[in-house]
Amino acid sequence: MARGAHLAGACRALLLAGLLASFLPAAEPSCPRDTSLVKDVGRMHQSSYGIDGFSHITVAGALAHGLKEVEVWLQTIVPGERTPIHRHSCEEVFVVLKGKGTLLLGSSTLKYPGQPQEIPIFQNSTFTVPVNDPHQVVNSDEHEDLQVLVVISRPPVKIFLYDDWSMPHTAAKLKFPFVWDEDCLPAPKDEL
Ligand SMILES: *[C@@H]1O[C@H](CO)[C@@H](O)[C@H](O)[C@H]1NC(C)=O
Prior knowledge:
The chain has helices spanning 3-23, 62-65; strands spanning 54-60, 70-77, 85-87, 92-98, 100-105, 117-122, 126-129, 135-138, 146-153, 159-162, 173-175. By secondary structure, it is of the alpha+beta class. It is globular and about 45 Å long. Residues 123-124 line the site of 2-acetamido-2-deoxy-beta-D-glucopyranose. One of its GO terms (biological process) is cytokinesis by cell plate formation.
């Protein structure tokens, strides 16, 4: 493509983005450097980050709030939806605030996760996912949202994603920074 046409295209895209921005209400930044001591969780940035039927709030984060040892998330999964199958080498503690579901837990000792254990989780239950064990949290209820408070160690989280339970651990794909941390890292350099 001629450079002129390329630039014109880029200008049109910028113009369009400008127009859209002027019509849309200003979105709350997803990575606010909010240093206030007490925050209203209900007003913090919430997004699906492209995961169907899922909502995530970084209640207290490494990149957004400067934590070094732990991070706290509030996540909601709608009926019938689930997290991806994944593993990480940090510790993870869940407290189920609402709803019920299933923790699917694979093995880190076989070459691949294998047939997962199915562990019921329910309102007011708490559980810890063993380090490096592939797992998936499922809202198996037909009506009610599943809401969990999650605490992880050693943020920001480095997540390895599996397509299914028979995918070898070595084939799981590292997604780093994970979707909710992407906005908080420095913007990539302009390639022009
Ligand atoms: C969970 O705890 C709350 C507060 O104590 C209580 O109102 C609710 O009934 C409990 N839920 C279940 C399923 O036990």
